[in-house]
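Write out the 3D structure for:
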Amino acid sequence: MNEVYSGAQERLVIPGDRIENSGGLAAGSGILKTNDGLVATQLGHVMENNGVIYLQASNSTYIPRSGDLVIGFVNSMRSNLWMFDIGGPFEALLPMSLSPWNTQYGDLEEHMIVGDYALLRVQEVDSQHGVVCTMKGIGLRKISTGVVENIGSNSTKLFIGVDGSNLQKIKQQSGCRITVADNGRIWVEGSDKGISEVRNISAYFSKSDTPYPNLKSIKNFNEKMEEL
């Protein structure tokens, strides 16, 4: 078992690495407390905040959960359902009975076709990882305006900020309406200039050298938030 010291310098650890905790910090996400001390349970960077030591996971794969708000695009269609890419390991199904339209069997193309985006909510995830979504709910709809950007599911908390502080700054700066989905996609509506400003900010994550928020992208994003 490797030993990794925590402190001011953030470090990359792998599962099984032991993290020295001389400051008596509480164990947070991605860290297991054992009789021998703290042990990393996943690949990530060691972080400290308000007396808690945790891992910023180095993994951008979205795992759907019931109740999640997601942005997906139609990947394929059958006679009675749409199949969406929501960024997870499996496609999500939207039966016509859970759409907002009075759709007849075989007439799905009248409402959405392959490539269309929609704001959905995960209704159910079964034991075989089958995902069923719904578009019946407040705000759920087909996306026909604005743009959709991908920042990665591990970047959403940082993008939103504590109590929504970062998201509020971005909205005020750009004048845009921004919807952040749990699967790491954002829907941006506004003027061309405002959308461009949001895309420049989201690029800290979407155009990162790695598929997760690395220390460089986090630092650059935080510096940008301080400027706003």
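The chain is about 20% helix and 35% strand.
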